[in-house]
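All the exercises in this workshop are built on plain-text protein records. Instead of coordinates, the fold is spelled out as a row of discrete tokens. Once this layout is familiar, the rest of the handout is easier to follow. The record below serves as our worked example for the rest of this section.
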Amino acid sequence: MTEETFRFDFKDLNIDASRIEHVLGDNEGAELDIVRNFIEDILKESQELSNIKAQYIIFNDIKFDDHNYSVEIGNISFNIGKIIFNQIKKSESIAVLLSTAGEEIATKSRSTIKEGDLLKGYIYDIFGSLIVEAAVELMTENFKKSSLSEGEKITAKYSPGYCGWDVAEQHKLFQLIPDNYCRVTLTQSALMKPVKSLSGIIGIGENVKMNPNTCKICGLKDCIYRS
């Protein structure tokens, strides 16, 4: 079993205004100017963010059940559903990952909305999601360089709550990362705290494939990242 932990400063993540604008969608005229000013302010504020964490643990003891579309990781069975099962079933090992943007950005979003600035509060919220996604991307690049053997490849990342995988199984996933470095906890309803956190699995093996556009296989229609 291989485990690595990471702590990032915001500047490590290479998030720029264009990435935020892409997620926010089309804006025009005066509204576009307002949005861009908000984004510039948030980018400047975020230079001080340094509590961005990520980690992964690689499990080699995995078993697949073709009949139930489930996978056993570390003696815990996950009903991941047909969509994810078909993407990772050729894996020889699986990485369980966790990342968090920390509490600050979500707190800023809530307080800004409470003060009545709904648009800026919403941009903070989107920004928090982008931070945690960018942290996972950066961690994954390190993971590919340091933990993969010759000939091994990886799948895309799959998380509870997406592609038919019940979000309640988050509780089982967290059993594989007790006392996690990211200090993320779960509510009874499987909501992560800090809320701008992300968990999931990545398949590893010589015969797996990276699906470059998981949106095509996912049935979640209202995701902000859907392309």
About this structure: The radius of gyration is 18 Å. The chain has a mean pLDDT of 90. The chain has one domain: 2-216.
